[in-house]
Structures are given as C-alpha cells and as structure tokens.
Amino acid sequence: MSRSATKPHEIVERALDLSTADGCVVIADEESTANLRWAGNALTTNGVTRGRTLTVIATVDGKEGTASGVVSRSAVTADDLEPLVRAAEEAARGAGPAEDAQPLVTGVAPSPDFTDAPAETSSAVFADFAPALGEAFARARAGGRKLYGFANHEYVSSYLGTSTGLRLRHDQPNGTLELNAKSPDRTKSAWAGRATRDFTDVDPAALDAELARRLAWARRRVDLPAGRYETLLPPTAVADLLIYQFWSSSARDAAEGRTVFSKPGGATRLGERVAGLPLTLRSDPREPGLESAPFVLAHSSGDDSSVFDNGLPLGPTEWVRGGDLAHLVTSRHSAALTGLPVTPAVDNLVLDGGGDRSLEEMVAATGRGLLLTCLWYIREVDPATLLLTGLTRDGVYLVENGEVVGEVNNFRFNESPVDVLGRASEAGRTERTLPREWGDYFTRAAMPALRVPDFNMSSVSQGV
User: Fold this and answer.
1) Which parts of this chain are annotated as the region Disordered (predicted)?
2) How many domains does the chain have?
C-alpha cells in the first residue's frame, strides 16, 4: 500500500500493520462541519471545516498483567503513522498493568461500508433553512426584536479496527440550532434551541413566533423572592438535569459508596424506587431520530469506560424502569468488580412513560406556578445526593389560572435530579429536545416537561 494513502480505512489498516504490540486498536475520526452565525437580524459568518483525529491504543502483555498506551493526534497522514504507533507502544511499555485490562473484543461482524469514503456535510445542508431564517429576520425586524444565534451541522465518521479482526464504522450526523431574541434595549431575552440530524425538520418561522410570544409575556414584570414554587420544567431543562444524572450513574462509584446510587456496605440502590411516576429512562443506539454508535467507541478509559471494550456491541438499556432504578453504567471490568451486567453508556437518552399533554396544556392546567425556559451554569454541590446548583436564564414566567401573566426575575436553584424525579407530579409528552447547558457534549435526547410541586429556587439572580 502506498505511503501516501490517506483514506481513513487505509490509515487504520496501515497503523495495524505497523503495530508490534501484543494488541492494537485504531480509531480514525473524520469530522466535517458547516455553520452559520448571525447577530442583530443579519448573518455574520459562515464556514465549512474538515478534520481528522487518529487514536492508537497499544496493549502489551507482561508477567503482572496487560498494560495499555493511548496516543491521539489530529491531521494525521500516512507519513505520520509510524511515529504515532511507536509512541503508543512506548506509552504502553512504560505503564504499569492496566486495571481495566480485558481481552480485546472479537466476533463482531464487519461493517459493510468500512471501506467507503467518510460522510461529509456542506453549506448545502442549509439550503432551505437559510432562506427561511432570512424571512424570520425580516419578521423580527418588523416586530421590534433582534435575533442572535448559530446553526451547526457536522458529520463524524468513525472507523474502528483492531488486531483481533474488528472492522467497524459509524457515521454520526449532528445538528444544533440556538436562537435568541432580545428586546431593542436588551433588557428582555428569550431562547429556543433545537437538535436535528439534517435541518429539514427545523422551522425558523415557528421558533421566531415562539420567541415573540415570550418577549410579549415579558412586558409585565413581577418580582418574586426565593422559595419553593410549583414549577414547569420544559424538556430542555429536564434533559440537562437527567444527562448529569446519567453521567453520574457509574456502577463502580455507586458500589464504592461515593454517589447518590450507593447503599451502605458496598451495595447499590438497584431495584429501588427513584421516581414517583412510572417513568422509564432509557438509551437505545437505534432510537428513531436519535441514532448513535451501536458499538463502544472509547478513546480513553475511566471508571466505567474502557479502551479494551472498543467494538463491544451496544443495545437498548433501561436505566430507570417504571420508576425503579434498573441499571447503572458498567464496562466489562467494572461489571466484573460489582457483579452487575455489562451495560456500557449509550450516546442518547430518552425519558418516557408519562402523559400525552403538551407543555402548553400543562400550563393551562396550572393554578399558580413558574414556567422556565432553560437552565444554565449547572454545577455539582454534593455527589452523595447529586445536589446540583445552577441558574435560570432567558425567561422565567408566572402562570396564574392557566395563563402566563408576566415575567419574573431569574433564580439560582439547588436541586438533585434524583429528587426531582421522585417529587415530580406530572410528566408531559416526550419530545426531542436540545439540552441548553450540555448541548456541546450531548445532543441526542428526548424528554417530557415535568411538573415539580416544590422546586427549590434558593436565591434571586440578577441575570437576564
């Protein structure tokens, strides 16, 4: 094979051929992005980028166990391969035995498109969206509001090859839209976001109308003190809370007594009731509209992820089933430590099993309460209870007798997502949503709105 070959599957094969380690895993990630940005009702920038990252994982057997070395580099060509492979091998030989060492995965059927060219996006993905956005600018200008935001679309084609014969490939499209409307004096702000695979299902006119309605609500201002309020959390806010819960659901950490899912004596809370409603929190790599990699892609090891698990098939997993804690995240290593099933993380999250009412219908059924837009700057306070703190942002509204009667001040909140699930008195219709806080890291989510009778607004915030 020519040293000048740069096709991703050829790069993978060449790296495997160069390896002298006892085991080798190679991941080539080909990324293609297109984006638009706008401010004050006008496009400001647009661009298209391409990139490649190659990760080589070398494993070396020794008397005391198997060690691993991981090296990742970007913009790799065929001429860069041998130094990269040797660096991974040197890292492995200089490391002690890997705690998570397992035999590399075998027996997975190859992807039929492994040798195909990577998927690519381009500005053409915005062919229908961009003109519709221009029309939204005109309506916003006529309505006395200014639109700010960005749209981003990317494809990541991941090629995975191993010395045990795996040849797997996954194409991951990912699109996000964030749209912010402000009053001319910028004292009032409203936000909307959408996740999409291809921008064919995003309607700028509908989003602008939604933001115009929220700015109209804000014409009346009502100041409220900190306290506990009946609160309607929209799907985006529910996603931000439950994604953090998902990230904190390590089986090993729970078994070692370090998380909200721990019980005294090294046990976990598996099987316990954690939601007051019969809700199911689940992941499925083949969930329609939220498809993600159907096999493990691990560029590094952690408490419940392992580079040795690369290529391990993924399937549907229920983390909470009918309100009961059903599974925690494990690698093959942490599953063996805890005696639990092997249930690696999957890159999407769905909460369902609630009602069929829309958020608007839930507002209409509210006597007095708060309607949030989104959460922001979420940080962990106490891992033992998963207590989080954060801020509301871009609109908190007062609901009285089924109608929004005005905007109230922003708040800092202190809540645990596990407690929120336990106290929620109503769940609406599950719909695809974009997490506001975690949208740079996790976009494939579908959530219902939740009604929480006593959401803790711990202090008043002066943010917009």
Assistant:
1) 91-116
2) 3
Domain contains 251: no
Q: What is the 3-state secondary structure (H, E, C) of 170-224?
A: EEEEEEEEEEEEECCCCCCEEEEEEEECCCCCCCHHHHHHHHHHHHHHCCCEECC
H-assigned helices in 94-182: 129-142
In contact, 243 and 442? CB cutoff 8 Å: yes
Distance in angstroms (rounded) separating the CA atoms of residues 187 and 198:
34
Kind and range of the H or E run holding 241? helix 235-247
Helix (H) or strand (E) holding 231: strand 227-233
Does 234 share its domain with 328?
A: no
Distance (Å, rounded) from C-alpha 325 to C-alpha 318? 9
* Alpha helix positions (H), 260-389: 332-338, 359-364
- Indicate if 300 and 394 belong to the same structural domain: no
Q: Does 142 map to a domain?
A: yes
Q: Give the DSSP H or E segment for 452.
A: strand 450-461
Question: Which range of residues forms the domain containing residue 135?
Answer: 8-214
In sequence order, the 6+-apart residues with CB closer than 8 A to the CB of 391 are: 375, 376, 377, 410, 411, 412, 413, 461, 463
Q: Do 210 and 229 fall within a single domain?
A: no
Q: How far apart are CA 53 and CA 269, in angstroms?
A: 39
pLDDT digits (tens, 9 = 90+) for 370-389: 999 999 999 999 999 999 99
Indicate whether 248 belongs to any domain.
no
Say if residue 246's pLDDT is above 50: yes
Same domain, yes or no: 312 and 299: yes
Q: Say whether both 40 and 66 belong to one domain.
A: yes
Q: Which two tokens stand for residue 297?
A: 């892609």
Tell which of 309, 324, 348 closes a domain.
Answer: 348
CA distances from 325 to 25, 72, 106, 259, 341 (A): 34, 36, 31, 14, 14
The closest alpha carbon to 192, from 140, 125, 246, belongs to 140
Pick the more confident residue, 462 or 306. 306
The angle formed by the CA atoms of residues 340, 346 and 352, to the nearest 5 degrees, is 95
pTM of this structure: 0.96
Per-residue DSSP letter, 298: -
For the chain, count helices (H), then strands (E): 9, 22
- Regarding whether 45 and 126 lie in a shared domain, the answer is yes
Q: How far apart are CA 93 and CA 59, in angstroms?
A: 8
What pLDDT, in 10s, does the model give residues 59-87?
999 999 999 999 999 988 878 999 999 99
The answer on 173 and 104 residing in a single domain is yes
How many angstroms separate the CA atoms of 102 and 348, rounded?
A: 26
**Shared-domain flag, residues 162 and 280:** no
**What is the rounded (10 degree) CA torsion for 353, 356, 358, 362?**
-90
